[in-house]
Specification:
28% of the residues lie in helices and 23% in strands. By secondary structure, it is α+β, with helices and mostly antiparallel strands. A hairpin with a 1-residue loop joins strand 1 and strand 2 (51-61). The longest helix has 19 residues, at 358-376. 46% of the residues are buried. Bound molecules: zinc ion (ZN).
Length: 377
């Protein structure tokens, strides 16, 4: 065992790796983490995928005597591009000022990964642990959970777990899930003709406009979820036609649907097909399942209790606005209770001059420690 780095030091060291995705290049960052974890009693394994510079990491601290299925934590180390605006702090330095650690990924979500690594690393020294602790650190989350999907698709890698904590930015609040996402394109076809003789063609742009009108009035036919609210549909893109003086024979809509617990992707696709007509080609581009854990679940109640002890506040039952790797990992781990709880400020994710409050980071490490202690005892 070597000295366990603090969550702050770890966050800084992770920020210093440029893991902007695309292209990703997360492997060096994960190798560094694996080194820290191996030195603290964890078994670690890197799972290469896609390109030589890309990988996922799974680290495991085995139980001294397993009485419960493992407790898992997850986070991703890829980050989004820096954006157009200039940063007033260096994005890959891990600078500390004003009680904050700054840099790309400081909120989303290298601080979260650092926090659970720092918390879990201390448990190797504990003489008795009655459950494995599994850390699943992924690549490729920001481009649609590709890393998590690779792990889920690799036979024998993920085993059933008793609970999962996702360390995405929540300002240190425990959240009980998030909506799913179904991003799709709808392609409307027509027949082209000279623009001076529109009656000889079938105008795909006009057909798409009529479809938009019907989509705007689309009803999902499900009751709003008491915590997540109602599903939504937003038309994000439209394209069609090649030149002004031709009747367009193709128009494509990009549609963003956010689903709630209990909605099946296949059912939503069926209703959209019925609305659009059989001649419209609907192609799903991103399918992320919703995640929801009953707040009365003992694991969630335990985490709520930890939050209350640490902050003096009663947690509200809430879900996150974004989706996470849990859409892929929760089902792949046998659908355990899943909590989203991380130190990053939610409003800072993907922003210029991203930061994490060090006080929230430290409080999150405490929360993870208590959650682990309660679980493995
Ligand atoms: Zn994230």
């Amino acid at each position: 065992m070597t000295a366990i780095p603090s969550a702050l030091e770890l966050t800084q060291s992770l920020i210093r790796f440029d893991t902007i995705n695309p292209p990703g290049a997360e492997r060096a960052c994960l190798k560094h983490l694996a080194g820290v974890l191996t030195a603290n009693g964890f078994e670690t394994r890197l799972f290469d995928y896609d390109a030589p510079a890309r990988a996922n990491l799974i680290a495991r601290l085995p139980a001294t005597e397993a009485r419960r299925s493992p407790l898992a934590f997850t986070g991703h180390v890829d980050v989004v591009p820096l954006g157009q605006r200039d940063w007033s702090v260096p994005p890959f330095e891990g600078r500390v000022t004003e009680g904050r650690v700054w840099g790309r990924g400081a909120s989303d979500m290298k601080s979260g990964v650092a926090a659970f690594v720092a918390a879990a690393a201390g448990f190797a020294a504990q003489p008795e642990r009655h459950a494995d602790i599994i850390l699943i650190v992924t690549a490729g989350e920001e481009t649609g959970s590709e890393g998590a999907q690779h792990l889920a698709d690799t036979p024998g890698v993920l085993q059933p777990c008793g609970a999962l904590v996702v360390a995405e930015p929540t300002d240190g609040r425990p959240l009980v899930g998030h909506k799913g996402a179904l991003w799709l394109t709808m392609t409307v076809s027509g027949v082209t003709a000279h623009g001076s003789m529109p009656e000889k063609g079938v105008n795909a742009v006009v057909a798409a406009a009529r479809l938009i009108d019907r989509l705007a009035r689309f009803e999902f036919g499900v009751a709003a979820h008491p915590v997540m609210g109602a599903p939504t549909l937003s038309i994000g893109t439209i394209s069609g036609g090649l030149n002004i003086n031709s009747v367009p024979d193709r128009a494509v809509l990009g549609v963003d649907i956010r689903t709630i617990e209990g909605q099946q992707t296949a059912d939503v696709l069926d209703s959209l097909q019925a609305l659009a007509g059989q001649e419209v080609v609907i192609a799903p581009r991103v399918v992320m399942e919703s995640v929801f854990t009953d707040p009365e679940t003992p694991f969630v109640q335990g985490a709520f209790g930890v939050f209350e002890r640490l902050t003096g506040r009663t947690p509200a039952v809430e879900t996150a606005m974004y989706f996470t790797d849990a859409s892929v990992l929760t089902p792949a781990l046998g659908s355990p209770p899943t909590l989203i709880l991380g130190p990053g400020p939610m409003a800072m994710a993907h922003q210029t001059d991203e930061y994490c409050e060090i006080a929230t980071l430290d409080r999150c490490v405490d929360a993870y420690r208590q959650i682990i202690a309660e679980y493995v005892r």
